[in-house]
Design a protein that fits this description.
30s Ribosomal Protein S18, binds zinc ion, 88 residues
């Protein structure tokens, strides 16, 4: 687990930002909980609180259905920052 050190800071980013609603269209909010391969990160890694984790999971699933984010990313397409392309 030592290679997961960058997630050791544990606090809920959504609570800190006082976010009450997570919009599935707001990818900047979702990316705290998505890995570089667009997988939902478990709470033990992100430090999200239960309430916000559930909200983000719902939003991510909705965003996938709406094709805002891909379901799977194959190895060749993994890039440093997958959100870079979306933000431009
Ligand atoms: Zn929270």
């Amino acid at each position: 687990m030592s290679n997961k050190r960058r997630y050791t800071k544990k606090y809920c980013k959504y609570c800190e930002a006082k976010i009450k609603m997570i919009d599935y269209k707001d990818l900047s909010l979702l990316k705290h909980t998505l890995s570089e391969r667009y997988k939902i990160m478990p709470r033990r890694l992100t430090g999200n609180c239960k309430k916000h984790q559930e909200m983000v999971e719902k939003a991510i699933k909705r965003a996938r259905q709406a094709a805002f984010i891909p379901y799977i990313v194959d190895r060749k397409r993994v890039i440093d920052n997958p959100f870079k392309a979306l933000e431009e």
